[in-house]
TrEMBL record:
Pfam families: HTH_1 (PF00126), LysR_substrate (PF03466). This is LysR family transcriptional regulator. Belongs to the LysR transcriptional regulatory family. It comes from Streptomyces yunnanensis. Gene3D superfamilies: Periplasmic binding protein-like II, Winged helix-like DNA-binding domain superfamily/Winged helix DNA-binding domain. InterPro entries: LysR_HTH_N, LysR_subst-bd, WH-like_DNA-bd_sf, WH_DNA-bd_sf.
Amino acid sequence: MTGETKGRPVEPPDAGVPLHHRVPDLGALELLLAVARLGSLGRAARTLGITQPAASSRIRSMERQLGVALVERSPRGSRLTDAGVLVTDWARRVVEAAEAFDAGTQALRGRRDSRLRVAASMTIAEYLLPGWLIALRAQRPGTAVSLLAGNSRVVAERLLAGEADLGFVEGLDVPAGLDGAVIGHDRLIVVAAPSHPWARRRTELTAVELAATPLILRERGSGTRQVLDAALAEAGGLAEPLLELASTTAVKSAVVSEAAPSVVSELAVREELTAGRLVEVPVRALRLGRELRAVWPAGQRPVGPARDLLGLTRRVS
């Protein structure tokens, strides 16, 4: 009976040994092909940029691994044995397959690197990302960037759904299911129109007064709202907002029109404060600082354009 024992196939002697222990690596196969092509171990070594002793050692190691002699050496050069001719033919197919594999992975990287999907919370999207993306454009002119602006909760949802490659949020911590890195810091400030009574106060506003006043605020789920809710929890929590708006630009417009004060990112109101369209209202003993973070799905470090953009955030901020 051949090939079977008691009805079961007979396994080859090396069946339990992993393939990478039984098959020479690509470097060794490329060296064997070069010897076959050039007829000299020395010339093959020079072509591949290694020393002749290293090439000899690699051929001997391959012969021990395969259990057959592959190359005969003489003063006139090197020639393949009969077994070496067969192994070289098989090696050529393996190397050609590896070249096809490499070409395919390069095409995949090219496809990946041709686009970048960014999701960012509103303040970062409006006031920081434009500078970062201009710098990325200079570094990667062939990458098309799409930007989704939303609150921090939306950013997390897009990343977890695989609809964004990199995100930016402004909340108190990293959303569940994501990893992140701090890329900067921001401060929330109370602002009012110049005609509002708070703009003419001689004393600092208290946290209790701020908490009890109906304000114009960003919607729940935004990083700004998250930080403000936490900061005023001990002062009784926020009163019912006068207005809840989905963008910082809308909030600023409403405050300038004298509807009510607000709490917004200092980054977002620099121009209005300088021009006198808004006034900062000091608040006593209230910490409203926050960290700005880049975020991505847990366990998946950014690669390609996303990695480059992450690096730029630290240089351009």
